[in-house]
Amino acid sequence: MSKVTPFLMFNDQLEAAIAFYTATFPDSQVRNVARTGTDGPITSAEFVVGGQAFMGYNGGPYFAFSEGVSLYVDCEDQAEVDEYWDKLVKAGATPTQCGWIKDPFGLSWQIVPKRFMQLIGDPDPRKVQAVMEAMMTMVKLDVVALEKAYQEA
């Protein structure tokens, strides 16, 4: 485990969240779990999602996720954006805006194509502004539309 590891506090859905996350993202695994009794629910776990280690705990209804913390998924292209977006939606996630989607456990994800980051890194502020304005109108990010905004600026 690295020196700093994100710790996710769930109500009572830790086991379902781990199952979904590790099935959805490559380079994922469950490392350790603690259960209440021999066959009881998972109370805490150490797991890896997409190569990132996490700790999780079923802490009850006292804590809730907010958009103040989100998980950023760096996607190679539109196909990968579509793949993760579709898996999240199929699992019951709620799309919000600008590439953000809230999973059924309340955790927010940013599903972002690498090309978006390249476009907003351009030294021309007009092009960056055009891409940002296009992105602000989107729910799921669309590389073709982002490229169009960039080219037309």
Beta-strand percent range? 25-35%
Largest sheet: 4 strands, mixed
Placed side by side, the strands forming the largest sheet appear as: 1-4-3-2
Q: Can you give the mean pLDDT?
A: 96
Residue stretches low in confidence (pLDDT < 50, at least 5 long) are: none
SSE diagram, text form:
Layout: E1 7-10, H1 14-24, E2 29-35, E3 42-49, E4 52-58, E5 70-75, H2 78-90, E6 94-95, E7 100-102, E8 108-113, H3 114-120, H4 125-136, H5 143-152
Parallel strand pairs: 1-4, 5-8
Antiparallel strand pairs: 2-3, 3-4, 6-7, 7-8
Helix pairs in contact: 4-5
Q: How would you characterize this protein structure?
A:
- With 153 residues, this protein is an alpha/beta fold.
- The chain has helices spanning 14-24, 78-90, 114-120, 125-136, 143-152; strands at 7-10, 29-35, 42-49, 52-58, 70-75, 94-95, 100-102, 108-113.
- The radius of gyration is 18 Å and the shape is elongated.
Summarize the structure.
35% of the residues lie in helices and 28% in strands. With 153 residues, it is of the alpha/beta class. The termini are far apart.
Give keywords:
4-stranded mixed β-sheet; 153 residues; Signal recognition particle alu RNA binding heterodimer, srp9/1; alpha/beta; 2,3-Dihydroxybiphenyl 1,2-Dioxygenase, domain 1; single chain; 8 strands
